[in-house]
Amino acid sequence: FLTSAAAMAAAEEEEEGVLGAVKALLDPNEKTKSGKVLPRGYLKSAREVVKTLRESLKEDAGDPARFRRTADSAKESIRAYLSGWKGQKSVVDEESYIMLEKAIRSLAGFYSKAGPSAVLPEEVKSQILTHLIAAEKYL
């Protein structure tokens, strides 16, 4: 009985995955928490930036290897986000886009002045986290 129940659950998951993929092709948009309809690719990319950047900011610089991994992950998600969405008319006026841009600019501004290996001060971390929280409300 357990085997057949597990098989049925796996079949349902597979079916949902296929249906989800077909739906994504037919309707490339998604409704946000605030009720707006935005491109699904944008929302996925923006949510990834929020997640990885938040993880990076919470990481302790005392463990350099772990800190580097989370920072590299955040850097990659920011690059992907910017390469796909920077200046895109479909999202440029969205609150989430504006807040993410502020967070990224704060981070870039600090490192351009202090150098790539500088430790991010709590004040700058707090400012970036505030922007991330605001962006997340609109995603």
UniProtKB/TrEMBL annotation:
One of its GO terms (cellular component) is chloroplast thylakoid lumen. Pfam families: PSII_Pbs27 (PF13326). This is Photosystem II D1 processing protein PSB27-H2, chloroplastic. Coiled coil: none annotated. It comes from Genlisea aurea. Transmembrane segments: none annotated. One of its GO terms (biological process) is photosystem II assembly. HAMAP family: PSII_Psb27. InterPro entries: PSII_Psb27, PSII_Psb27_sf. Gene3D superfamilies: Photosystem II Pbs27.
